[in-house]
Amino acid sequence: DSAGVALTAPGMERVAVRKKAGRLANLVQDIERDPMPDATVGIGHTRWATNGVPNDTNAHPHTSRDGKVAIIHNGIIENASQLRLDLQTEGYRFVSETDTEVAAKLLGKISDKIIEETGKPDLFKAVRRLARMLEGAFTILATDVRQPDIVVGARHDSPLVVGLGEGENFLGSDVAAFVAYTKRAMEIDQDQAVMVSADKVVVSDFMGNIVPDPKTYTVDWDASAAEKGGWDSFMDKEIHEDPAAVQRTLLGRLDENGNINLDEVRIDEHDFKAIDKIIVIACGTAAYAGMVAKYAIEHWVRIPVEVELAHEFRYRDPILTPRTLVVAISQSGETMDTLMALRHAREQGSKVLAICNTQGASIPRESDAVLYTHAGPEVAVASTKAFVAQITAAYVLGLYLAQVKGAMYRDEIAQTLESLKDMPRKIQWVLDTQTKTVQEAAEQMVDAKSFLFLGRHVGYPVAMEGALKLKEIAYVHSEAYPAGELKHGPISLIEEETLVVALATVEKLFDKTMANVREDKARGAHVLGVTTEDFAGEIEKYADRSLIVPKAHPLLQPSLTVIPLQAFAYYIALARGCDVDMPRNLAKSVTVE
Ligand code: F6R
């Protein structure tokens, strides 16, 4: 909702700051019109408002009283009000409503104190002192005109990663920020500070103890993967990457002995065998992937699986034992709600396995085992290819547990994996044959005020995902229900021309779902049906329009059923003139609670 930069170079009296409300393009245009000075270091920030409305003043960077120090900040500083009052009594004035400005003024004060004490500036030390005084979640980056060759960062609960270049170094919330310049990255752990110059990176804890050997890794995708590459939008591109996302997530899972492999496992086989309950923690789309996992894992492994929104789980005193496996699903690997829930689970002695799309992110780093979804970077805010990859990874996990616990025969596991390997081809078929019909349906329904998504069995979580996509990017009210639930209340919402999207891809429940569709039609609903090839003729008798997906093993069907729903939301949003990649009020990575 706003963006800004601060630049520092030798000889500057004050940090050069420019910031603008609105899209990043506003800032870019402003700087093109009125260029900023050349500089040796810079910090830049895009804001998602937490404290104070989005305007030029509240945008970051914020500066110290004398303008010599500037900071940018992600997170929420919980003791900002008290710190602000303390500074106000000392005569400090504030121009913005943000917690970040409080940290900036305080950092200025600490920096002056250090100069007084030692005779020279020491931004690294000042940032560490600041970090020890702040409560809440933060990643801070700071620059000081008196040390124009360094940027200093510190993190507590919010993400920060270093990019290691040749004669230049970078800091970012995630690797996408700098992957165009370098693929070598360094992890910054919880409660660590980092000082970066063109040729040096020094990491310490908040007390100043140097971390001798910070972990580095190489990013496994190219900058081009995070570019539009000829597509009109990232969302369209990413929907078309659904088949590849599934394929890459399955790659190399089966070794020559027919055993399934995860990416990182720090749980011994004995503990895995002893697991008697699974709790999936996740938010939004990732939680719907977890609901799909429940159906498959309970069926294959025969142990109970609960799915819980991470922010609810954390504060509810859930029953956790060393025999509970908590599965944290997250595309970004930085969702604060999920991270906090994961930490809670580990404190209670449970093991945590992460299903994550981002290498080196906080969630996989803090988990006991990791299964990466190799979907490649997802840029559009609405999650699409990550969802199909998450479901795929959850299937792999289910089969892995079935293997470890001996709940399925080896050939049965291998056969299911084979069916999974056929999913990319089937998804491609949906994209190739159904897109035109989806587009026509969307254009016909573009003015609808409200949608009702219905599904049964594994179709239910897919219905939830379809409804979420539509709310998120097209700003249309949409709800999802298990089709059988309608008669227990929501059917009273149905009136002439209510739009119902009915998912009838679970073969054994086709007739029951059609009975529900007939009930809706009898009350005036307009129905878009989704079913498998075998029922293509049947569904036409009930629905006003229909979309077809190939038939698969019933538990694997969600990977196919969701594809036309992603495209449907995309085309409705497009027809309504919405920005499909950057819907209002949303951020890609939700790093606040
Ligand atoms: C929906 C969407 C969100 C995310 C949720 C969790 O399209 O993108 O609902 O799924 O915020 O994010 P991750 O998976 O990064 O933890």
Can you walk me through this structure?
By secondary structure, the protein is an alpha/beta fold. Helix content is 36%, strand content 22%. The chain contains 18 helices and 24 strands. The strands form five sheets. It has a six-stranded antiparallel sheet with strand order 4-5-6-7-11-12. Strands 14-19-18-17-15-16 form a six-stranded mixed sheet, with helices on both faces. A five-stranded parallel sheet has the order 21-20-22-23-24, sandwiched between helices. Helix 16 (510-522) links the parallel strand 22 and strand 23 (526-532). It is globular, with a radius of gyration of 26 Å. The protein starts with a strand and ends in an 18-residue tail after the last helix. The model has no long low-confidence stretch (mean pLDDT 95). Bound molecules: fructose -6-phosphate.
Write out key terms for the chains shown.
593 residues, alpha/beta, binds fructose -6-phosphate
